[in-house]
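lol forgot to send this yesterday, sorry. struct tokens for the thing we talked abt
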């Protein structure tokens, strides 16, 4: 129950969904946890929220130092903040492409870059990036989003190669469709959200979405010494969906 006792973790996008479930899990297992989010409101007691936009490099740098100053160390980074994009190759402007990549890819680079000197001093250093099965499974109407997550997958492999010898393990989780406010927002834009949710559930291998807690469990595993010896791996949390052909809901 105390896998993370004595460790400090940053969770980006930790005010909602998968990030919030992860922050709660790491905290319940003994970690000091800081959440970086646009609006880090309503976090459970004991979890420190810091207003950070991961596209703002100087704010990220400041926030990482603030965490180390407060807790004395940094051991775990969960790079989880991300935003969606819908459309085929004609569906998004150049500005939209650059905006999504800025959050979903470069945002992770910024946090990792500033965390690196501190992680080098940790005996239990781990970075876990939130990828998605769309990185390799191919999903219609998700060209930009899939490209961003493909980049997260490649980033994970390359970072793992660079840092495993200095004791920093870098891995990623790839959720299938996860039951979070993200999905609620997308469903609520459709004419009949309840029917769309039922269809989405029916399409899943297990007849249901994966939960934020299930994804958090995989992140916690990859962040903990229990997964020692892993680096550059992707752990899918999708009830087997990535082996099937994806269709839009
Ligand atoms: P969510 O919308 O519930 O939470 C995302 C959080 O990220 C929010 O709190 C938001 O404020 C924060 N965020 C967004 N932009 C940010 C920025 N620029 N700086 C700091 N924080 C920012 O979404 P979720 O479903 O929990 O998704 C979390 C991660 O999981 C994302 O990377 C997403 O791509 C990935 N993912 C989600 C699903 C899914 O079906 N929900 C599937 C695969 C992958």
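and heres what i got for the seq, position by position
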């Amino acid at each position: 129950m105390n896998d993370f006792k004595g460790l400090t973790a940053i969770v980006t996008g930790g005010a909602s969904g998968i990030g919030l479930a992860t922050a709660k899990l790491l905290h319940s297992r003994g970690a000091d946890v800081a959440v970086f989010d646009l609006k880090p409101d309503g976090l459970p007691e004991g979890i420190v929220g810091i207003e950070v936009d991961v596209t703002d490099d100087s704010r990220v740098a400041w926030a990482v130092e603030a965490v180390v100053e407060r807790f004395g160390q940094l051991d775990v980074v969960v790079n989880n903040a991300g935003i969606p994009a819908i459309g085929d190759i004609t569906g998004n402007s150049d500005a939209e492409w650059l905006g999504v990549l800025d959050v979903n890819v470069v945002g992770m680079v910024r946090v990792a870059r500033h965390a690196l000197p501190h992680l080098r001093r940790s005996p239990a250093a781990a970075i876990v990036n939130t990828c998605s099965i769309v990185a390799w499974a191919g999903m219609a109407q998700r060209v930009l989003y899939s490209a961003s997550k493909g980049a997260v997958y490649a980033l994970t492999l390359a970072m793992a190669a660079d840092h495993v010898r200095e004791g920093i393990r870098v891995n990623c989780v790839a959720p299938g469709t996860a039951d979070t406010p993200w999905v609620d927002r997308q469903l609520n834009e459709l004419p009949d959200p309840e029917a769309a949710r039922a269809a989405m559930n029916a399409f899943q291998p297990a007849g249901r979405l994966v939960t934020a807690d299930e994804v958090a469990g995989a992140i916690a595993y990859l962040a903990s010494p229990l997964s020692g010896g892993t680096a550059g791996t992707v752990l899918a949390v999708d009830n087997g969906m990535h082996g099937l052909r994806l269709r839009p809901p």
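Strands lie at 8-12, 32-37, 48-51, 76-79, 126-130, 169-175, 178-179, 210-211, 234-237. anyway ping me if u want another try
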